[in-house]
Amino acid sequence: PPAQSASIPASAPIEGVGKVIAVASGKGGVGKSTVAVNLALALQKNGFRVGLLDVDIYGPSLPTLLGLAGRPAVRERRIVPLEADGLRVMSLGFLMEDDTPVIWRGPIVTGIIRQFLRDVDWSGLDYLIVDMPPGTGDAQLALAQTVPVDGAVIVTTPSDLALIDAARGLQMFKTLNIDVIGIVENMSYFVCPSCQSTHHIFGKETVEAEAKRLETKLLGGIPLDMAVRKGGDEGRPVVIAEPESPVTKAFLELAEAI
Ligand code: ADP
Questions:
Q1: pLDDT per position in the chain (258 positions), as tens?
Q2: Which residue's alpha carbon is at the smallest distance from atom 17 of ligand 1?
Q3: CA distances (Å), 203 to each of 41, 189, 190, in order?
Q4: Is the CB of 140 under 6 A from ligand 1?
Q5: 27 is known to lie in a ligand binding site
Q6: CB neighbourhood size of 87 (10 A)
Q7: So where are the chain's domains?
Q8: Which atom of ligand 1 is nearest to the CA of 232?
Q9: Residues 183, 234, 197, CA angle at the centre, nearest 5°?
Q10: How many angstroms is it from 31 CA to the middle of ligand 1?
Q11: Which of 65, 3, 11, 2 is nearest to 34 (CA)?
């Protein structure tokens, strides 16, 4: 159980990396990977050098979201991350055949995550953003025990269903002694393109209330926007595809808040 294992100290920091930030969620499908990618790109726009590590072992999305394929090279016994839009990226997706289900037990997952953190050449980064699998499990534990994590960002939608699990995810990071930077409210609202009125499809002000209850910050809200979904499916994230759009502005503000 996390509480017991949390006492094992994380080993040395990753050489040449400023901050390690985990992007996590309680549930799948709330937009965690989408936020991780666009947040990474927004941080880069703000002048930082950023890497993106996908440890969502059972559902690696970064290759699709970034339109990236190929096998990472090995140089001087280090794995060289692939590059997309200036980001350095590593994902299990690069090492798998399409459609192959991954059936691994915890120790294998732990081993792969250790390798991704220790054997990949991440040197020269201000931020390494880690896209976690949803929930509370082996990957979270493996990350916490392998490197010092500077902070966790929890992504949720305003729906009660997502929020209940987000709270659980947040508590787990606290148990692992990882600082929770705050909560991102994704799919926060929808602006109707015909009438310009705002609709709070998944609920209103629920995340703000929950953040207060959990003694953390609401870092910002990202609207439900067709351009976000389209950018993800086409492998051209909205921060790149539509740099002047309101949703890109929301991601830039989010990057400022971190
Ligand atoms: P998770 O990593 O939490 O499983 P994803 O990032 O894969 O979620 O997103 C799930 C789906 O929702 C994707 O199709 C993505 O394009 C879409 N999506 C995520 N955030 C938004 C948003 N703000 N507006 C529109 N679509 C979104």
A1: 444 444 445 578 999 999 999 999 999 999 999 999 999 999 999 999 999 999 988 788 999 999 999 999 999 999 999 999 999 999 988 988 776 767 778 888 899 999 999 999 999 999 999 999 998 888 999 999 999 999 999 999 999 999 999 999 999 999 999 999 999 999 999 999 999 999 999 999 999 999 999 999 999 999 999 999 999 999 999 999 999 999 999 999 999 999
A2: 229
A3: 28, 8, 11
A4: no
A5: yes
A6: 23
A7: 2-257
A8: 16
A9: 55
A10: 4
A11: 65
Residue 233 has, within 13 A of its CA and on its CB side, a CA count of: 5
ipTM value greater than 0.95:
yes
Question: Is position 204 annotated in a ligand binding site?
Answer: no
Distance CA 130, CA 153 (A): 10
Residues 2-257: name the CATH superfamily.
P-loop containing nucleotide triphosphate hydrolases (3.40.50.300)
Which is the closest atom of ligand 1 to the Cα of 131?
2
CB 133 within 8 A of CB 58: yes
Please count the residues of the chain: 258
Element containing residue 54 per DSSP (H, E):
strand 50-54
pTM for the full model?
0.94
55 is in an annotated binding site: no
70 is in an annotated binding site: no
Q: Is the CB of 23 under 6 A from ligand 1?
A: no
